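Troubleshooting log. The previous run stalled partway through. Resubmitting the same two chains, unchanged.
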Amino acid sequence: MIPRYQKILFGLLLAASVAMGATLWHLRQRAHERLIAGQDSAPTSAPDVAPAEQATLLVANDSNGAMLTQFLSLPLPADPGARARAVLGKLLDLYAAPDAAHPVPGGASSVTQVFLLPATELGAAAKPKLADSKTVVILSGESSATPPAALSQQTPQFGPQMAVVNLSGTFAASHPSGIETEMLTVLSICGTLHANLPRVTQVRFLVDGAQRATFAGHADLTRTYLAADAIPAEEIRP
Amino acid sequence: MRSTKWTLAALLACGMAASPVTAQQAPSVPQARFVVVLDAAHGGDETGGRLANGQFEKTFTLALTTRLRSLLAARGIQVVTTRESDAAVEPEKRAEIANHAAAQACLSLHASESGSGVHLFVSSLPPVQQPARFPAWKTAQGVSVARSLKLAGVVNSALLQAGMSTTLARTTLPAIDSMTCPAVAVEIAPERSALHETTAELDNKDYQARVATALAAALVEWRTEARQP
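Second attempt completed without errors. Output:
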C-alpha cells in the first residue's frame, strides 16, 4: 500500500518533469528561431553602403605589354580615399584571379591605405615621363571636371592631388620579377587612380608604411609617378 | 753574296713601290674609340627573378653578358662590364662604371618569365635640351634619352630581323637613370606564339644565341651610325 503523501509527491514530480520538458522544448524552439533569424540577417552579398557607379580600371596584359580599359559597376564610397582604395582593390582582385592576364597574387587586401595629399609641383628634370604628348591631352581632357587653373592654385581643395598608395609587404614580396611586369603594375595603379579621381596627378608608393626600392628588383618605387602618363593616349582622346 | 744583294734590292724596290698603295688604303683620320658597357643585372644576394628551369636571373644575365662580350670583341668592339662574377653591384656603382667608360652604348641585360620575346626599355625621364654642366645623379640619363631612343630603335630592328617579337616601352630603373650614355634595358622573356604557347624557353641555347647575335649586330650597326658624320 503506497502512502498518500508519496502519491502526491510522485504526481508533483511528474508534473514538474513535464513542465520542465515543455520549458526546455520551448527554449530550444526560441533558440532555433533566433539562429535562423540570425542567418537570415547575415550578409550574403556585398553591402550596398554606396550606390553602384561606373569605375574605370586600366588592366595590364603581360602577353603584349599593354593596358586595356575596363568599365565596371562598383559600389564606390563618397570619400575619395576610400573610393581610391575600393577601385585599386578591385584592380588587384582581377590580377589575383586564376586566369589573370597579369597575374599578381594578393588581391584587394594588398591595398592597405590610400592617402590623398595636395600635390606639389615637380621639377621638370625629376618627372618620370612616358610621352610628352600624353600629358597635354590628359590635362586638357579633364578641364570639364576641374575648376579653372587659377582657382586650383588658390584653393587646395580643388587643386591637383598626390595619392600615396600603401601596399602590403606580402604583395610586394610575392610580385613576379621583371621590368615589364613591375612597370605594368605601377602604371595600371597610376592610370586607374587618375581615371577615377582626375585630381590625382601624382602617385607615390609605400610598402608596409615605408619606402621600398622596388617590388622585385626592377621598377623604381622611390620615384613620384605622373598619373596622367600611365593612361594610353587613345583612351583619353575626346 | 751577289744574289743576296740583288734579292734585298728587289725587296726594297717592291716595298717602296707598295708603300704608296698601303698609305692610300689606310684611313686618313683615326677612328673614334667605340666602347660598349654591358650590365648584367642583379648578382650576389640580389638574385633577381627565378626562371622556369630554377635558374636565377642573375646567372642568366651573366652568361648572356659573357656570350655577348665575346661576339662584340670578335667584331672589334671594346666592352666594359659592370660585373664579371656573381657579385652584388649597387645600381649607383653600375652607373658609375658606365659613366667612367664614356661609352657609346650601354645595355642592361635582364630576364623574366612574364611576357613574350624581348622587351626593350628606355628611361622615362624627359629629354634635357640644354645639359647642365653637372647633371643631377638620379636624372643624368635625361641628357641621352633622345640617343637612347635611337639606340632602342636600332636594337629593335636587329631583333625583328632575327625573327623575334619585341616590345618597346619606357621605365624607371635606377641604374639606367643615372647613366649618361645611350642606354637601353633589354629584358629577355620566353618566346611565345600568338596562341601564347611557349616556343623557346630561356634556357634554350639556340634562343640565347639568336638574341646575343642580334644584339651584337645591333651594336655593330650603332657603331656604323655613330661613325657617320
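Takeaways: Residues 1-42 of chain A form one domain. Chain A has two domains: 1-42, 52-236.
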